[in-house]
Specification:
CATH architecture of the largest domain: Orthogonal Bundle
Family: Belongs to the sigma-70 factor family. ECF subfamily.
Order of helices and strands: HHHHHHH
Pfam families: Sigma70_r2, Sigma70_r4_2
CATH class of the largest domain: Mainly Alpha
Helix content: over 70%
Number of helices: 7
Keywords: Sigma factor, Transcription, Transcription regulation
Organism: Streptomyces rochei (Streptomyces parvullus)
Strand content: under 5%
Domain RNA polymerase sigma-70 region: 38-105
């Protein structure tokens, strides 16, 4: 059943002289010899249709083999009054070839979309890192504009997570003074950073 497809058939095979409808009926009943005859008669035509659509010889060979296997498996579904065996085989071959092209295109589209997502993700990450770095630079510059007590209080509260009371204890400064210095320092930071309320 998995015979190589004969591509260079210069003369009509003996099978071409048989009545393909009768052969197909025998194939439908599992007759392997009849399938071999059918294969010899149709494989070159099937390959010719497939290669015109798929355009890649190796893939066309695979698709043509799949079509011939379909003919074996679906032989019982063949309806002589719907058209000739050749037309039926040609229709299956064309559909299979188109499916392969669409599948290959979908895979290519997925790969391109994935590459675009990876590129965008990488760009977004770099962009975010640059933005964060620029913001950090601006915060450091603005912190340098505060008084020493304001800078220490803000750093302890916002970078180390201390409460106002813990900042007051760490700096050995009265709590009301720390609150005032932090409020004034945060206002100056806001203005320096250009944050609007």
């Amino acid at each position: 059943m998995n015979q190589p497809i004969p591509f260079n058939t210069g003369r009509p095979s003996d099978a071409a002289r048989h009545d393909l409808t009768e052969i197909m009926q025998k194939v439908a009943h599992g007759d392997k010899q009849s399938f071999s005859t059918l294969y010899d008669a149709l494989a070159p035509m099937v390959f010719g249709i497939v290669v015109k659509v798929v355009r890649d010889r190796a893939q066309s060979e695979e698709v043509a083999q799949e079509v011939m296997i379909d003919l074996w498996r679906q032989a019982a579904r063949y309806q002589p009054d719907a058209g000739s065996v050749t037309t039926w085989a040609a229709t299956i071959a064309h559909r299979r070839a188109v499916d392969r092209v669409r599948s290959a295109q979908a895979a290519s589209d997925r790969e391109q979309a994935q590459a675009a997502r990876e590129h965008t993700t990488a760009f977004d990450e770099v962009s975010e890192q640059v933005e964060t770095r620029l913001e950090s630079e601006q915060v450091r510059r603005c912190l340098r504009g505060l008084t020493e007590l304001q800078r220490q209080a803000v750093t302890l509260a916002y970078y180390r997570g201390l409460t106002y009371r813990e900042v007051a204890e760490a700096l050995r400064t009265p709590l009301p003074t720390i609150k005032t210095r932090m409020r004034d320092g945060l206002i100056r930071l806001r203005d320096c950073m250009g944050v609007t309320t």
